[in-house]
Amino acid sequence: MSYTTTTTTSLHSCFLLFCLLSALSCVSMFSGIETGDLEKRDDLFPQILRDEAVARLYELGKVSDGKGYLERTFLSPASMRAIILIRKWMEDAGLRTWVDQMGNVHGRVDGANANAEALLIGSHMDTVVDAGMFDGSLGIVSAISALKAMHFNGKLEKLKRPVEVIAFSDEEGVRFQTTFLGSGAIAGILPGTTLEISDKRDVMIKDFLKENSIDITEESLLKLKYDPKSVWGYVEVHIEQGPVLEQVGFPLGVVKGIAGQTRLKVTVRGSQGHAGTVPMSMRQDPMAAAAEQIVVLESLCYIYRGHSSN
After folding, report:
1. CA-based torsion, 243, 139, 199, 224: positive or negative
2. Across the chain, which distance is largest between two alpha carbons, in Å?
3. Is residue 254 part of a domain?
4. Percent of the chain, pLDDT > 90?
5. Whether residue 295 sits in one domain with residue 242
6. GO terms for biological process (predicted)?
7. Structure confidence by residue, pLDDT tens digits, 277-309
8. Domain-embedded: residue 30
9. Pair 265, 243 in one domain
10. How far is CA 51 from CA 43, 45, 58, 168, 230, in A?
11. Burial of 266 by CB count in 10 Å (0-12 exposed, 13-18 middle, 19+ buried)?
């Protein structure tokens, strides 16, 4: 058992080092600092980009509302603890931090030109019930660690454009059954009526935010939108949550497209009849018809061969 644990941790460390190096490369390439410009310190990459990052991921993975499993929904008690923790890590990386009115945590460095278009990096800090600890957290920790490596080398203030790390408060939509509250506010795609959405206990989003000492109105929600002209681009490191990279033997991949969701409710109606006296030729069994539809739908998905996951 100890061998398995050690091996798994080692594999995680190697994979995460790849991810963190890719985040560092993204920040460097898009912000005007070459990775070769970073001072060669023997302890830099192992300590900041591997050991500390892995420790932080495991620490964040323990911030949960559930016992024995990970559950950290939108602005739950565990989420509020995660906000404090993430903000502390951002400040440790030399970033100026704040929490907006949708609970997103921001960490920003202006670099050499505060008025230039900013590079945004990040992911979501909320989880589903019984979640994996790398989902979302990897993108946040890798971004912070990449910038800390630059801070450690005195290169952070020399970046040619601002870089901002964002830990989005809600992606999963577990509590209010509406996804992307955090990033939706930043993108400016949330209508003011979003604040009136209620959970299963009839608590509205605006009231829930107020319970967490966040006052928000329709007007202030709209003001959270980032001007597209102020944003140079967005990068997110994320686990694949699938088997393809492992199958082809690649530690990393670049996303060219993601699965979209369309949910339909289909009703199949039939006729009731006696199981022993209605001939097969006269039956209208909705279960059999539904089963046939499922098989046809499944076969249609195979038209798109390769690694699609329809």
Report:
1. negative
2. 85
3. no
4. 68
5. no
6. purine nucleobase metabolic process
7. 999 999 999 999 999 999 999 898 888 766 566
8. yes
9. no
10. 10, 9, 11, 24, 34
11. exposed
Give 171: exposed, middle or buried? Use CB within 10 Å, 0-12, 13-18, 19+.
Answer: buried
By the 8 A CB rule, do 90 and 163 touch?
no
User: What single letter denotes the amino acid at residue 36?
Assistant: G
Cα separations in angstroms, 272 against 99, 268, 289, 291: 59, 13, 14, 17
292 and 149 share one domain: no
Tell me the per-residue pLDDT of 124-175, one tens digit each, with 9 for 90 and over.
999 999 999 999 999 999 999 999 988 988 888 899 999 999 999 999 999 9
CB contact at 8 A, 126 and 104: no
How many structural domains are present in the chain? Answer: 2
What residue type is 197 in one-letter code?
Answer: I
Q: Is residue 295 part of a domain?
A: yes
Query: What's the order of all strands across the beta sheet hosting 163-168?
Result: 96-99, 105-109, 163-168, 118-124, 231-235
The residues, any chain, with a CB within 8 Å of residue 273's CB and separated by 6 or more, are 282, 283, 284
Give the domain extent around 280: 259-310
* Judgement on whether residues 242 and 263 belong to the same structural domain of the protein: no
Task: Tell me the C-alpha distance between 204 and 282, whole Å.
Answer: 51
Parallel/antiparallel/unpaired status of strands 118-124 and 231-235: parallel
Instruction: Answer positive or negative: Cα dihedral of 220, 95, 27, 45.
Output: negative
Ordered DSSP codes for 34-67: -GGGS---TTHHHIIIIIIHHHHHHHHHT--SSS
DSSP letters, 139-188, are: HHHHHHHHHHHHHHTT-GGG-SS-EEEEEES-SS-TTTS---HHHHHHHT
Specify whether 277 is located in the same domain as 149. no
